[in-house]
Amino acid sequence: MFETWGPLLGGMILLIAGGDLLVRGAVKLATRLGVSPLVIGLTLVGFGTSTPELVTSVQAGLSGAPGIAYGNVVGSNIANVLLIGGVAALLFPVAMSSTALKRDGGVMIATALVFVLVALFLPAGRLVGAVFVAALAGYLWLAFRQESAGNAGHGAAADKQSALEGAAPGFGRGGGGAGALLIALAGLALVVFGGRFLVSGAVSLAEGLGISEAVIGLTVVAVGTSLPELVTSIIAGLKRQGEVAFGNIVGSNIYNVLGISGATALIAPGPVPDQIARFDAPLMLAVTMLLVALAATGLRISRAEGALLLAGYAGYVWWIWP
């Protein structure tokens, strides 16, 4: 049992701890170099909770395990909506502004739709990866302009930053340049080794249970790499910062599709597995639209709707697990 689950759980621990150190060190170093706090927040801090997904998907792609690579992206987005959104709403009804819902909810749906179309009709090659990464850069640039203007309300990228800083007060502050660099390098080493352990453990688990790598990627790996989003959204919910919890989910889903699947396609191009392309990716689009629809009714997600989301996630795992 340990031989099967040990590397998987160890990899998750290394990934989460290493991702935290990497982003803390990078933020401190950027601060010392005089980078704008808003730029740091929308990029380095915003990517903080998405580091485990990024490293795992790229490592899986390089290891020839596309089921884990893209299952992690799609499964994480489904878990963000159904599992994390459900838990956050059960703790305290999730509210949001109409501006954030229209702007960022629309972007989240659009990115999910584009991913489905690519998965069904195009190979996830380097051109697709470059377009996805460029689209994320464009989204962050627009977010920077809107946040700088201060007249459009907070967007999902800023809420993702706020969620992480709310979970770890003082995130990335203080410290010298040399110490910050060492922290970042230590975090990088941990996430690289953690990603390798997690991918090898996931492959071994799939072989040991006699099920597809895609199912493991969509469930065990996706939930494991989404733990930072779960923690930050729960803390935001307990602080009654429902808008931040919602923005954290939306921002994470946008980062996952554009940044993580884009980076995976750039570094390890290859087709999205047929099972994911034909069922799980369209389901990701459907639950994304459901989240926005629920949020649009009164600009909040109630506890009853949160219970519905959680039940939906339980049903999804039951359906795909052999």
From TrEMBL:
Main location: membrane
InterPro entries: K/Na/Ca-exchanger, NaCa_Exmemb, NCX_ion-bd_dom_sf
Location of this chain's protein in the cell: Membrane
Membrane topology category: Multi-pass membrane protein
GO cellular component, as recorded: plasma membrane
Domain Sodium/calcium exchanger membrane region: 8-144, 181-320
Keywords: Membrane, Transmembrane, Transmembrane helix
GO biological process: intracellular calcium ion homeostasis
The keyword Transcription belongs to this UniProt entry's keyword annotation: no
Transmembrane feature ranges: 6-23, 30-48, 68-92, 104-121, 127-144, 180-203, 215-238, 250-269, 281-299, 306-321
Any matching Pfam family: Na_Ca_ex
GO terms for MF: calcium channel activity; calcium, potassium:sodium antiporter activity
Name under which the protein is recorded: Cation:H+ antiporter
